[in-house]
Amino acid sequence: MTEIIDQHQEGKRDVTFRVFRFNPQVDSKPYFDDYTISAERGITVLRSLNYIKEHVDATLSFRAFCQAGICGSCGMRVNGISKLACTSQVWDELDKCREPGIIRVEPLRSLPMIKDLIVDMDPLVDKMTRYSNWIDSTMPLADMGKKEFLISEEEFQQYDKATDCILCASCVSECSILRANKEYVSPAVLLKSYRMNVDSRDGIHDLRLAELVKDHGVWDCTHCYRCQESCVKSIPIMEAIHAIREDALESRGPRDTSGAKHAEAFMEDIEKKGKLVEATLPIRTNGVVWTLRNLLPMAMKMIVKRRTPPPPPLVKSAKGIKIFRAMFREMTEHVKQDHLKSHKK
Amino acid sequence: MKPFDIVIVGGGGAGLYAAMEAMKTNPALNIAVLSKVYPNRSHTSAAQGGANAALANKAKDDSVEMHIFDTIKGSDYLADQDAVDVLCSEAPKIIRELENIGTPWSRMEDNTIAQRPFGGAGRPRCCYCADKTGHTILQTLYEQCLRKGVLFFNEYFALNLSVHGSRSRGLIAMNMKTGKVEAFPAKTVIFATGGYAKMYWNRSSNAAGNTGDGQAIAYRAGIPMKDMEFVQFHPTGLRKSGLLVTEGARGEGGYLINKDGERFMARYAKEKMELGPRDLVSRSIETEILEGRGFDSPAGKYIHLDLRHLGADLIKSRLPQIREMSLNFEGVDPIEEPIPIRPTAHYSMGGIDTDNFGRTVMDGVYAAGECACVSVHGANRLGGNSLLDILVFGRIAGHTAAEEAGKFEPGSISEEELRESVEEIRTRMQPSGHYERYGALREELGQTLALNVGIFRESSLLHKGIQDIAELKERFKKVRVFDSSDVFNTNLQQVLELKNMLDLAETVAVGALAREESRGSHTRIDFPVRDDEKWHKHTLATLVDGKAIPGEKPVTMGRYELQERTY
Ligand SMILES: Cc1cc2nc3c(=O)[nH]c(=O)nc-3n(C[C@H](O)[C@H](O)[C@H](O)COP(=O)(O)OP(=O)(O)OC[C@H]3O[C@@H](n4cnc5c(N)ncnc54)[C@H](O)[C@@H]3O)c2cc1C
Ligand code: SF4
Ligand code: SF4
Ligand code: FES
Question: I need a labelling partner for B388 at 20 to 30 A (CA). Which of B397, B418, B474, B501 fits?
């Protein structure tokens, strides 16, 4: 028999998928199943799962729809990282395995489990509703459809990237705060809120913002950057979060939360005096890490916008000040680069 | 459950617009939207190109009239001219309305909505948002529905229409999360379930769920399907998956190459070469393959789309998405290797027969979007007209249903009927000695359709196709569901989708055999020319005693007389 030669298929590799299983009807707790298949170059994790479902185990359950990275259905954790199964190459994943040849596949975190790799998306939808993730148009009803708003390229640029979001919930699954606090607004919802708030067609900016500064809102974020690092559409989510905070300070003043108040004082200190005054320094009340994560990036960003960043602040001895200095430098760099990037776009 | 005034099946562009409009028409109505996926996942999100409207932002001399003519000509004169009139006249209004409620359209220098040229259009009138038009339209509509508090039943799979005499009493659907079969008694039902091109399976650009469920449900309830034989093929689908490589690749100067290394388009379109119209390029590629000049592989025959001469820089800067697709789905980097491609089933022109208000022949049942056939696309849809279709007619169907819901008595669905639907599922789940694998059947269906009811059609091929489908239907009786769980049983869902595809496939093949002419996307080798005398009419397929019975319907003419379609 002659074999059909396919020049694109130089080889196959044996791969074991170690898949998280849980069927609430019969299982008291989750377990893992191993499926070993032979995978050719170019095959994705989703196609492998489809293969397993069709040929090995029809009970394996997961979501998939477009199979092209567009619809956001197939978010799951592959080798520990939340991503889309349909755009993840098996051969690439083989290089990232903790145990050679074994790819771990698990459901997204921080959303209720339904079955196997399927989690409940309703909490995310509920949050989109709570934070009014829609445009409440300022166009009078009678004029709807009759004329256009005029929108500048600059404005469009502000939310262009944010509208790439496909609500796959990868960032939600990676968010460190959400794992501890399920009430937390969520990175994707912050991103969407930002997108609405910078849109000149919208009429409920203040209302949305007022909700965002409440408990479990924008001030709870720790700036760990994990959402941004895992975003399947490479959206600079952190920029959106910074922007909401800046906006909150600018349009609401330092009146909402301890976070906002501290940030304002903190920023003024650095900006005006080039040093931190102990009296307003939030380190003592909230700890070094909290201060750095919550206040510094935003304060820096606000300053960088206007002029070159100041030198590391002089601070009288406070506990943990050494770490503080080192982290300050690192963060400044982070923020500066973010800033540069966003201006190059 | 309390009876609904309107149950909308489908949360894509058509379904969501219908919901919004119905609420606006009568806020007191009790409306529900059912969708087998979260609405924002619907296939509308895949549309990249844009939506047509004669806004005249770009070409000042563009007009609704020109849009109408382009559409009628594009349809190869099979579209109903009064319907096209509605489509194109409503277009500017609907695009602006979307703009008013938040769709982030790309902008022109004067800050108005940007427009670009698109195939078959005499003026640049395609409104777009970068390469994510469908995605942003769908997001906008979903956001607005959340804002208005539309009642969603997400991840509900519609099973059957409850029919009593000449009217429907509502819908029966399965809650995927619990596996429970539930009744949705309703005065009116709107189908907005999208297209059926996925029946070509790996030879289709569509999402896995574009299995024509709504059409199949309506068909089984006795509602006629219209013009089912018209399926549009896109020339460049990826070999293994059928996923789309957009026109951009050829627009930037990509070559189509056969196994002898020839740029074969020289044979078919000397001047335009790779940039000829979609149907011509598709036919050319298919001819090369049929005449033995394609490459061979276990995943099927194919030809090359070669971008290498464009250079790494251009590919990276201008065609990043195409490169990503090719890497992700073929494992091929177009900078170093040509992309293996083959034409792919892309859009279904046919669907549930409706009038210009979205009404079907059954009282209280409406349809809109790709699952309906009004018909505005006739034998061939123009790029950018389909998003427009789902918006315009989604809205109209929502409006009509809201106005007419009051005419109908509230329906009720009996326990008996629910039990029938459950029973159907239960038998599937019973083990049997000899069984068939649904995966194999699904693939075989795709293959026979691509081969026998594909781009080139011919009497003996079509007979073979019809026979294959009948056999597959027979074998389907032995398909079993191996997942016995009630919770999110995707195994069961896929089996039910296969059943829908099999039922509809028959209507596509039967329609194609009946239509003894070549028009638009339908090419008969044995009847190579358009035959207006015999075939300037719509075909219908109605299910009677388990068989597709052919029928016909005249085309509504208007200002434009029949002409030859040349570009
Ligand atoms: C790759 C690609 C690119 C395209 N590009 C363009 C373009 O540039 N311009 C253009 O105009 N058109 C384009 N099209 C066509 C266009 O996108 C579609 O025709 C259109 O989006 C269909 O919208 P719809 O609302 O009718 O259906 P869909 O968006 O497909 O929605 C169908 C809905 O029905 C639901 N549903 C289906 N079955 C069931 C069931 N059994 N139970 C419950 N719910 C169900 C689904 O969950 C979904 O919510 C493109 C198509 C493809 C495939
Ligand atoms: S940066 Fe904030 S939103 Fe993002 S993952 Fe960390 S805590 Fe969550
Ligand atoms: S922000 Fe990125 S990772 Fe998060 S849901 Fe949107 S696309 Fe997915
Ligand atoms: S299946 Fe749609 S994003 Fe993966």
Answer: B501
